[in-house]
Amino acid sequence: MSSRLLLCAVLFAFVPRSRAVDVVRANDRAPSNPIFPNGLDVFGRDARCRACHALVNALNENLIPSIAAERAKPASRATYGALDALIEAALAPACRLSATWRDATTRKACERLMETREDDVAAAYHRWIKRGGGSARDGGGTRGDGSRVTVAEARSGAYDPVGWNWNYEVCGRATGACREQLAMHELAEFDDDGAGDGEARKYRSEQRPADGETVDGMLKVTAGTFHEAVVRRDADVVAYVGFPKLDKWGHFYAAAALGSVREMFASNETAREGFEIAFVDGTHNDVPPPYGSDAQAPTVAMFAAGNKNWPRYMTDMNDGKLTAFEVLQFIMRTSAKPSTVQHAHWLTQSLSQNALHRRIWDDDEL
Ligand SMILES: *[C@@H]1O[C@H](CO)[C@@H](O)[C@H](O)[C@H]1NC(C)=O
To answer: Signal sequence: where (predicted)?
Structure first.
């Protein structure tokens, strides 16, 4: 058997048979918000967290202008009573009135949230007022003429106290509707879920892998689990989106280098804690924006702990022809985690030249 044929035989053992592919359909009643079968959307939000974000957006459009107008009235003392009445009046119909909630699941989650946490939401608005919310921040004070603040102004944060984050205050602290990782972001970051306007976009995803399931030596991740496994995880995660069906050799070479580096970390108890290398099969999964793209080209990106909003891409994948050493260099350049950087450095110093620089594509035999 020629070595090329032998490699082929190994490769077929290496690339798993294709799994069932579900096409994820955006809910008809909420065409702008694709939901994966696990109930999470492209940001990793569950229905309760989505409902809280929709609630705060809708409330702010009405409440911030009214409160700012109330506080701007020269004669008014903007008494606690008057402001409280504004807040109460806005909260009562909040789940019914928003035009954005055509989705029954989200609307029900909103109603449940308000049944149990309405007072906490109101208290967050009072905290905002107490910290100076409702007065323009640009030094000019509130509008003296009592004219209405526009929705755009309300949303721009011009009336928010310095450092105020609505998402954190209401959806994190007051109601616990969103987990901490999601509640830390500004609300505006959730505005564009990549669906575009017009026709609902369909994201394909393989079925959810088993916990810790690996493929080709890497952690298996799908479009539907990308957010929880890569973005939300508090670790350095190198995510490789590959196309084994389109370029089996390129995939084989890249997977060999990435899989061997993963093993170098996994076999060391301290180093493996905060580090992972994940593989998404791009031929069956559409990783939603902002983390994926439509390009059918392989990518390797570091989603570094503490800096998940800024993935760093490997700029030249050399058609998958990567050595373990090049992968380790990439990790050292893009991670800010001492345990990861130190271990990668230690590996480059302590491993054999063959382990570090092996060019599997030049090998005559495996
Ligand atoms: C684990 O890695 C560290 C460097 O990150 C190294 O100092 C240590 O010796 C390694 N442990 C083992 C058992 O190889």
So the answer is: 1-20
Enclosing domain of residue 135? 47-190
What pLDDT, on the 0 to 100 scale, is given for residue 239?
97
Ligand 1 atom nearest the C-alpha of 339 is 5
Higher pLDDT, 154 or 90: 90
Residues 175/51, Cβ–Cβ less than 8 Å: no
Smallest CA separation from ligand 1 atom 1, residue? 268
91 and 55, same domain (yes or no): yes
For the chain, the domain total comes to 2
How large is the average pLDDT for residues 31-42? 70
* pLDDT (mean) for 21-33: 37
Distances from the Cα of 345 to the Cα of 66, 175, 178, 256, 274, angstroms = 57, 44, 37, 20, 16
Q: What is the pLDDT of residues 41-85, one digit of tens each?
A: 888 889 899 999 989 988 888 788 888 888 877 665 667 888 899
From the CA of 262, how far away is ligand 1's center (Å)?
Answer: 15
Give the separation between CA 129 and CA 134, rounded to whole angstroms: 6
Q: Which of 311, 232, 239 is nearest to 278 (CA)?
A: 239
- Residue 333 Cα to ligand 1 midpoint, Å, equals 20
| Calpha distance 217→261 (Å, rounded) | 9
